[in-house]
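Homework help board

Subject: predicted structure for assignment chain

Our instructor gave us this sequence and asked us to write out the predicted structure in C-alpha cell form, then describe one feature. I got the C-alpha cells but I'm not sure how to describe them. Can anyone check?
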Amino acid sequence: MKTEYDLSKMKSRKNPYAAKLKKSVTMRLSEDVISYFKNMAEEKGVPYQSLINLYLRDCVASHRKIDISWQAVSR
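My C-alpha cell output:
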C-alpha cells in the first residue's frame, strides 16, 4: 500500500445511485398511526420510518388505490 496517492488525474463522474436516493419529506401523521408502525417496527427489528417506506413502496408496486369518496348517511 502506498503512503500517498496522486488523485489529481482522476476524473469526476455523477453518482450512479443518486436517482435512487431517498428524499426527505415532512408529513403530519396521527399519533395512533405512528404508534402502530413503531410497535410493528419494534417487533420486526427495523426502524419505523423504513417500515412505513416499505409499506408505501408495496402500495406503489401493487398499484393499490384508496377510495376516499364520501358516502351519504342514511336516516
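Reply (TA_rk): Your C-alpha cells look well-formed. For the description, you could write something like this. The chain has a mean pLDDT of 90. That's the kind of observation they're looking for.
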